Amino acid sequence: MPGPSQPAPDEEHIDGGEEPYSPTRDPTVLVLLVIVFGSVLAMVVGLGGPAVVGGNDSGPVFPIPEWFDGDGDDAAAVELRVDANRSTVRPGDAVAFTVSTADGSAVDNATVRVAGRVHAVTNGTTAVRFDAGGEYVATASGAMGGDVDVVGAETTITVERYVTNLSLAANATGVTAGDAVRFTVTDGSDPIDATVVVGGTQHTADGGTAVVTFERAGEFEADARKGQTPTRRYRSDALDVDVQRRQVALSVALNDSDPVAHEPFRVRVTRADSGDPAGATVAFAGETYDTGHDGVVNITVDAVGEFELRATLAETPAIAFVPAERTVGVDRRHVALSIAANRTGVPKGEAIRFTLTRADTGAGVNGTLTADGDTYRTDLNGTATVTFDDPGRLFVRGGRADTATETFERASVIVSVRGANYSLSAFDAPDEATRGERVTVSVNVTNDGNEPGSEWLEYRFDGDRRDREYVALDPGESRPVAFEATIPNDTEPGTYRHAVVAADGTVAGTLAVTAANGTTTNGTASDGTAAIARYRHRSGSEDSRTVSAGDETSKESDTPRKTGRNPANALSVIW
């Protein structure tokens, strides 16, 4: 639309403001004052005339002018009309008002009041310039001489502001939460100061530019707005901005690179972008755990193997978190065992009570003990009692079989067994003898114990003691001991066991007994029945022996047993 037109040289203008009102300048007020003054004057003049008496002689009545009598005619009234050369204009345009009576006669003594300003009418017309947009009411009023009432008139003028279309542009309409967008507002060609409204928040675009940071994801409408001026109004412009959540990866760290079953290990979840702790959810081995604000949680697993660990965090209005995943191997827990003894030193032949426990909890362990080559089972409380027959320092070891989740480390304790221990060796005896013959048998005796000792050693033939010797030895001392015995005359020919017996051991051999004249050089018995058997000494040497034909041999035991028919006490030969 074209710009404002130029007003006539004698016109007044309306700029939307209002001067202070003065009644002395208002023609309407002046006309009313004249009427009131004239009425008062007529009343005063009427008081000087003759009194009028009422019909009931009740008293005098003040004379009243005839024009106050109700029977008189009403004063004449004149209606004004106000016309404008146009009812819709632009700011800066002038409007010509014409004030006339109903018959079209121009009224000179009149005014036109617009927006609080009074404009005098000359030759029935006046011009008013409107500098600001809006709706205006123009009121015409005036005064006429005599008894004439003047009725004012009014008309409405619309001042339409000029319109400017705003244009809004952005350097990006698809961004990530946390990014800033630069908006530019123009009037179609040039930048213009305005306001950009995004998400209900106003941002001032000084010089036509506003920078807005989007802190959360979503679809946003950006509106460019500008308040109207007295002469101009602005149409807003809008555009959409798509804001996506920012992708932030999570990171997990373990305080133990080799976690074990039944023992807690700490998992810490952090943001990969900043390293800040993340209050995440951790899934591991079928269980779910929540970290605290410090991003830390302790996890305990009662199983062994490879497990997937996954940390997740719910998205925020601005961030979508990428889960962290890793494989964690859980090994068997190593459990140390402890073994305690009610005493660690005992005389030979006495017992010690042992208790096998877990070092971590002190609970008893149902396991095994090994001592001097023998195995003993502990009870549910972890206890077992062992009797020690051999002097010396002995290791007692305790253990337990591994479970699915635990490996047990063996424990040991050293016990000292005190006492003498006689060992026999170098058994020397004849291979054969006749009935009634006196034989000599010797052995080497050693005290293998850790204390001095003394005891009786016995020589036994066919289980019967035939001789004995008292032997006293210091620890580590060794000497030979000889025994003499006569083979009973009533001994039946055959092979018999004879031995030297100590408290801690026995050394034995076999002796072939023959009749005085019944054995030949080839080993044949007097009754013609004989056999040759191999016998192994404890020293390891072997030799041949003649046994009766009715004897049996057994390989099931190293202890000879009586099995023959004749003689009744003949012994079998054992390899």
Residue fraction in strands: over 45%
Class from secondary-structure proportions: mainly beta
At CATH level 2, the architecture of the largest domain is Sandwich
Helix content: under 10%
**Low-confidence blocks of residues:** 1-10, 16-21, 44-72, 518-575
Q: CATH topology of the largest domain, anyone?
A: Immunoglobulin-like
Q: Which CATH C-level class of the largest domain is it?
A: Mainly Beta
- Domain count: the total is 5
Q: Biggest sheet: strands, sense, closure?
A: 5 strands, mixed
The number of helical segments is: 1
Can you say what the CATH homologous superfamily of the largest domain is? Answer: Immunoglobulins
Q: What is the strand tally? A: 49
Any idea what the shape is?
Answer: rod-shaped
Amino- and carboxy-terminal Cα gap: 138 Å
Please state how the strands of the largest beta sheet are arranged side by side.
1-9-6-4-11
Q: What's the Cα radius of gyration?
A: 69 Å
Arithmetic mean pLDDT: 82
